[in-house]
User: Fold these one by one.
Assistant:
Number 1:
Amino acid sequence: MSQFEYDLFVIGGGSGGVRAARIAAEHGARVGLAEEYRMGGTCVIRGCVPKKLMVYASGYPGHVGDAREYGWDVRLGGFDWAAFRAKMDAELDRLESAYRGNLARSGAAGFDARATLVDPHTVELSDGQRLSAAHILIATGGHPFVPDFPGSDHVMTSNEVFKLDALPESILVVGGGYIACEFAGIFNGLGSKVTQFYRGAQVLRGFDGEARGHIADAMQARGVELHLGTNVMAVTPVEGGYRVKASNGMEQVFEKVLYATGRKPNSAGLGLEAIGVETGRNGEIVVDDYSQTNIPSIYAVGDVTDRVNLTPVAIREGHAFADTVFGGTQRSADHDLIPSAVFTQPELGTVGLSEEAARDAGPIEVYCAAFRPMQSLFAGHDERVLMKLVVCADTRKVLGVHLVGDHAGEMIQTIGIAVKMGATKEDFDRTMAVHPTMAEELVTMKSPVRTA
Ligand code: NDP
């Protein structure tokens, strides 16, 4: 019999922590898990899930307009934010109980409490209870970061955005990353007047340059007022909203100001320093390929490690940890060639290297098509879909695929398999087209638009 009450104690009930707890319990470990807020973590409670529901909600005005172009006698009525929010809240409640149910069914014990570390084998819960464990897994996620400036306490973040009492008439979105660009599209689609400030030269830094430009143009064409090279100087509350002074001299009142300027790991106040768990500059917990910290009994997965901050990655890291420590199979999560989507409007699907990154690594060919897809062309839209392949000139391997357009996220999931398998341009070419689809363009691009 072990000297500890648990074989594993997990701190944090989000995607990574719950997966690790369940798999470890299935491997026969005695598992405890503490969550201080709501089970499901950022993804379920204030991230991917409610965000995607809002993306769907915001798409309907466009669909109704298109339906008219297709001969339907339909008209767009008003949007009932309260009704939508109530339904969204109910859906999150349902998912939270599914998480609780799954955890309980696996045999793990759940604690609705904050847990901190006392020593390498002991946690203390917020009710004062101390529990010992052979292994401790930290899966506490991250939180939105808001820079310090006059009036910074008046802005909201993605934590509050799902709790709005009413849809704002006007909103300023600050930032140029995933969250900022997604919410600019959401509020624009729902009918708010959206202004977006980004401090740099183009939004979505790190993604393929051509795709970034394509999305920024399309977002503006759809109604987002995007100001590049622009930042907030000060925010002051006024009647009906907030007066914002911008670095470009602009001064304007917005009903709401949403900051999406990055996220930071939730590592403070856990007791890490006293035990000597190594953290990085951003507060991220430093781990090896097997998610083990410098203290052998303590592991960490997900956003708190600031590796690749995506739900499926946290899940894989949690699963690999549980298999390694409790399942007798040494496994690490593979962080290479991760397909992902940004739910901007239009959507971005991407896997592998951007043209810029690939060009730095060696000679490449770029295949690219920008065309008006049948469905929206018929409805009278000018917006183009972008499909791009970045190919290694030597090995012929497809190094990167970048798609902008409807269902890009769905498409990139399947293309990601081919790219992960090491498919060459010729593998794409000998695959028969599926007609008539947008995606057929991926297997019919004959000549490179450029080489580099
Ligand atoms: P990102 O890191 O993607 O973007 C942060 C943005 O804020 C950047 O444009 C950055 O500018 C800007 N910024 C940072 N600091 C400041 C500052 N002091 N003043 C003004 N602007 C600033 O973070 P997000 O918050 O958008 O998202 C966090 C993470 O969540 C993402 O990295 C992603 O991993 C995950 N996520 C994934 C989604 C998906 O898969 N669809 C959806 C949402 C989130 P600069 O570029 O100049 O640094």
Number 2:
Amino acid sequence: MAENKVCFSPACLSSGMRNDRDSQPAFHVGGIRFSQMGGSQCSFPPCEPDRVLVRVQKLTPEKADQLIWVRARIHTSRAKGKQCFLVLRQQQFNVQALVAVGERASKQMVKFAANINKESIVDVEAMVRRVEQKIESCSQQDVELHIERIFVISQAEPRLPLQLEDCVRPEGEGDEDGRATVNQDTRLDNRVIDLRTTTSHAIFRLQSGVCQLFRDTLTNKGFVEIQTPKIISAASEGGANVFTVSYFKTSAYLAQSPQLYKQMCICADFDKVFCVGPVFRAEDSNTHRHLTEFVGLDIELAFNYHYHEVIESITDTMVQIFKGLRDKFQTEIQTVGKQYSSEPFKFLEPTLRLEYTEGVAMLREAGVDMGDEEDLSTPNEKLLGRLVKEKYDTDFYVLDKYPLAVRPFYTMPDPNDKKYSNSYDMFMRGEEILSGAQRIHDAQLLTERAIHHNIDLEKIKSYIDSFRYGAPPHGGGGIGLERVCMLYLGLHNVRQVSMFPRDPKRLTP
Ligand code: ATP
């Protein structure tokens, strides 16, 4: 019963109250002694634990010769004679620890420590000692812990489905010297363990950074974050790649993008909107860059004079993200780079903008045979990325004025040449990360284009009606979060940057 009453409230821990250990009533949970206090400010049952847990990251020489408590996982364990060496890990930080038979530890304690399964969570009370030689294999290189007490807080099963050290081995290294590497399916089947690695932690902290920078940049530019429905009555992009779900006595679809709704917000005078949310695609595409559910970073804004205002706003947002990552996430970038090496990501200011016809001309010059109105295939997209890098030394650029025929029905045709459109894609390391356009804001033209694309007008009636009562010229784009992270870090598979990826063959974990 005592478990339910444990108070971990910071208010309680930081109250600075000291209790008389012997006179106060106490209870124990997982080896921690809690003293019950009277008159605490805390709304939980008042109590004070007998230890303050220090973060592994904070174990520096300043803490030398102090007796401290640490809660961490047993990363590795190696018994040798009368001592046992442990590496204790907490997220991406780890520290060497030692239990040795002596005044402070018995033979039984060394044996007990040596028998704790890897990945178990322990509390240790230990003396912090400065070391003469740096411990290169640990993040805390200047100190080690001399353990005096050890409690198992949560025991891991003895057999792990995969070893963390195999999961972080640099690409290619394992195969050469015969050491194990872990294939992607095994990693994803046991994702929680795979996610514990320093590489995974770095990837997902960086991903969180991309979302944060996206939100901060757009909020500073006066955008409003909106939420759009994910269960919808009509496929937003038309076409077949939509999941149907049963919806009471009828059926509905999972949104392929927030497209129609973010535009409807523009019709409702929100002027500049963005959203971050799941996007569903029922495409049987088993490639390195397609998921059936991904996170869309979407932008839509009204413009005053020219749709290039929209391109500028989006490219500036991307540049702010790249700068933020470069300046605030170097540790993460380098951690990932140790396992998956890649060239640092390069970008220009202002962002390079090429027209589709220029891109086609560069490809033709490189020997590609393609028509004016043909869409870019994935290999051609990558080739063009390499040609652009060689010529302009950038990993990020915009291709503007796509052929109208290869774009969705709501795309604004180019007023000067109806074969083309006011639409654009953006690329990182030669792969598409964004599709966008000026949208048609005239109900009549929108209706004509929808008919041209064989879209059932009845199903998008409320969308088209939104434009009947006046709508400002506007445009925007949709970005795939996982693609941005994958390509920024120079990784080769979008599943590495999706915590629990969904693809045509994977629905679990
Ligand atoms: P692709 O040609 O690569 O299949 P798309 O043209 O279907 O992409 P859009 O529908 O324009 O892409 O979506 C906008 C952005 O969303 C893309 O540029 C990409 O970053 C991301 N995206 C699209 N489809 C997927 C997917 N299946 N998995 C992950 N991200 C995706």
Number 3:
Amino acid sequence: MKQFQVKNITSGVSFTVNEGESVLTAALRQGVMLPYSCKNGTCGSCKGKLKSGEVHYPFHPPIALSREEIAEGGALLCQAEPMEDLVIRAREIEAVRDIQVRKMPARVIEKTLMTADVMRIRIKLPEAQRLQFLAGQYLEILVPDGKRRAFSIASAPQSEDIIELHIRHVDGGGFTGWVFDELKERDILRLEAPLGTFFVRNDEPQRPMIMMGGGTGFAPLKSMIEDLLAHNDNRPLHLFWGAKNLSELYMHETVLQWAEQNDHIQYTAALSEPRSADEDSGFTGLVHEAVLQQYPELSDFDIYMSGPPAMIDAGRAAFLENGAVKQRIFFDSFEFGLDVPIRVLARPH
Ligand code: FES
């Protein structure tokens, strides 16, 4: 099999990419932790620079790269396959390097409908097994036909062997239809975790944080906030949570309580289509507009965003225009539409 050498000049690390393998897949396989989130070319987390060598994109076009970025040597490393040896410039993420990614079974122990289209499920790992992860990371549910479905972990690492997921129903069936209609308590799922490089940065000096979530994009932010609270981390934190109306903010009361009980936490609900009963419950408009209304100057903040790509893109562009530091914007972008069918792997009697 043909192999290519890739050298990252940011760290001096070199690794080998097999023919037909993406740069990101090869890097992760060899313990080189490049940043990533969606792994399907839409979020832009894995952007790097090509200093020499050529790549191609055989599966998906590099959606998250603009023409200008390509012209300036940008590459989307989750999709890019080398055509020759490469020299790249890419950030590496130390914090997740030593956390082992594992496959494991987990049993569904609770299924709760939070709104008409959001289900909370809690799953339990086998006896004596713990999942080590950083708050904000995600897991994948493995499907027998080889497909996978990614979900952010909504519980904090302190919750030990119980993992919480928030699953939004996607029209058209597929995996989420199966979760809503067929998945039962006591069913067994097979997981791979932890994945992704979305987590709270603790570099000094620590900066106040703005967290912005859209819909079930709240899940990893919930994990992060619970983890910060468990560590008595009192950095100022303002959570903005956006949805069409208040009933879609499925843990609104919990977040109000966090803000009430902790002076360093503020909360703003942003409602794009509020109902009359929602009056006075928050900002009316898009969630990134709510952030800008309160923080017209963003250069002092670390910004964490989680939600659909359109929300992330709008937020990122607007925040950069308002002084946000590019390297201090962290995001987890997920596409609700990427849905695959699944079957029950095992159902105990
Ligand atoms: Fe590569 Fe999302 S675009 S990880």
